[in-house]
Amino acid sequence: MSFVSYLIKGVSLGSVYSIIALGYTMVYGIAKMLNFAHGDVIMVGGYVIFTVMSMMGLNPVIAVLISIIFCTLLGVTIERVAYKPLRGASSLAVLITAIGVSYLLQNIALLVFGADTKSFSSVITLPALKLADGALTISGETLVTIPICIIIMVALTIFVKKSRTGRSMLAVSEDKAAAVLMGVNVNKTIAITFAIGSSLAAVASALMFSAYPSLTSTSGSMPGIKAFVAAVFGGIGSIPGAMIGGILLGVIEILSRAYISSQLADAIVFMILILVLLVKPTGILGKKMQEKV
Amino acid sequence: MKQWKVFNQLNKSTRANVITIGVIAIIYVLCQLLIAVGALSNLMQGLLVPLCYYSILAVSLNLTVGILGELSLGHAGFMCIGAFSGAFFSRLTENTITSPWIRFPLAIMIGAIFAALFGGLIGIVVLRLRGDYLAIVTLAFGEIIKNIINVLYIGIDGSGFHFSMKDSLSLGLAKDGDIILNGAKGITGTPNDTTFTIAALFLIVVYLIITNLVNSRSGRAIQAIRDNRIAAESVGIDITKFKILAFTLSAAMAGIAGVLYSHNISTLVATPKNFGYNMSIMILVFVVLGGMGNIRGSIIAAVLLTLLPEYLRFMQDYRMLIYAIVLIVMMIFNWNPACIAWRKNHTIKGTLLSLLKKNRKEA
Description:
The complex is a heterodimer of chains A (293) and B (363). Chain A is mostly helical. Chain A has helices at residues 2-31, 38-55, 60-83, 91-113, 140-162, 164-174, 176-181, 186-211, 221-234, 239-259, 265-279; strands spanning 118-119, 129-131, 136-138, 214-215. Chain A has a two-stranded antiparallel sheet. In chain A, strands 2-3 form a two-stranded antiparallel sheet. In chain A, helix 10 packs across helix 11 (265-279). Chain B has 363 residues and is mainly α. Chain B has two domains: 1-40; 50-299, ABC transporter involved in vitamin B12 uptake, BtuC (Orthogonal Bundle), CATH 1.10.3470. Chain B has helices at residues 2-9, 12-37, 42-67, 75-93, 100-126, 131-150, 196-214, 217-227, 229-234, 239-262, 272-275, 277-290, 295-311, 319-335, 337-345, 348-362, and strands at 153-157, 160-164, 178-182, 187-188, 267-268. Classes of the chains: A mainly alpha (293), B mainly alpha (363).
């Protein structure tokens, strides 16, 4: 039974990773940049919920909604101010700028909220589910996280495949220049992508900090990196890939933490990533790129 | 005048080397003079050695990122390997080899060799991966190294070495035993052999190795791979060999920087701060800001960006905020197409010339 409960815990953590990984993967697919500041948007989302809930004493649902709006605006602003001027510059230059933005967000949070760890009160009030006479307990956070993740995945896939905006995203990620010729507004599409990615980060932050409640100015960076790994794991640029990668990563992490060593869990996750990439160099669902001379 | 003639007869790269080494030497002498008259604060004195090893790290990463053209986010991992293997050796032989003049060079060699071994290993992985996939593998590698060192316990007693990955008690050491690597508590009591002189000397050595490589046949092959891999392959350049060469060399030099680092502090522990991906990214920032492929630029950027937060200390809590803003603004100023065009029209020389013209017209 403990194995099953670890497995469920892993899927739950993995769901959070996949929601974050979606932000990475979509931005990468469309803007061809690694948005290193994505993890810090999660941290900002956490602080917004924390402020609204414990300082203003508002309802958790309202807090999450405010956080989603705030993060969406933040993501669009970051794109507009820091990344848009660098469109067409080398990808390394954009990467370093993203790192600069990441430092900036962390330090602003440090100045506003101080260096001490804030204890995040869960936004989920659902009671834990006890199965098999109490041998298997599933926490309320898990019960909410997994369905939300599935809903987001399905909605996003339909949005990208069916809607006009979604199809223009696909077009931009396929070939930017050709998309412009077809009348796609590239700048608008990229801005929308950032908006979606950042709002997903806000959702992920609500779920993650409810399950792992310690909040500091750097608590977004490690989940950010792991989600990035998950995105690469599944094949960067692919939406189902982000989901598979995220869930696998979460399950591997929780299982190795439980059965092998809690200190080595991260090392094992990364080791498996390297092995997977050695066998499939573009991730599990990644497209093989044909190189042209 | 005669000396200048000799200088001008040297070929271009040698001249550049002489100038760079000259500048490093002058700065070195200047620092020593300032220390002698007591004009350099303790804080600044403490920064001299870090400046050297940060410069070495930046120069060595420039070999992979700027000259080979592969993005690496795990440079701190190589530094970590160098630091721990070097410190391990020094702690082990502290009582047998008492002269630091023999022990320290050996430690540096061992640090470089161990880091190079891992560099070669990553180099083999690199052959299969491109671009961002490679970046994530190097990042993962750096994190793995840091994590493993934090659970590794190595001790020694009369019967030889004892290893454990659990805790120091399970090493089962005899009474005379000595725990050298104590898991997350790291290595304590490493002799402080690194001095500013040695660090500066190694900076020059590393600089010379890299510039000589870049200007050699191998260096040109490496740059050809960066510019166009397929074209390079078709003219008969052995891609495997040169990629592994570049990775190994770069790792070895990061290892040297690691040894210098570990012999400059009293307690060596692997934390996210000193050997995590943040460190790797910081080195990458040096390289990108200094100009990819520009070795002098790496040193200048490393020095400036290490000093910047120190000089911003008067702003207290705001200093890292300012640092982040400066970083973003510098990147945009450097790379934004509009800014590039503006810079082209407003060079210092051009502005001076136009001012002169204006004056002449008025006259």
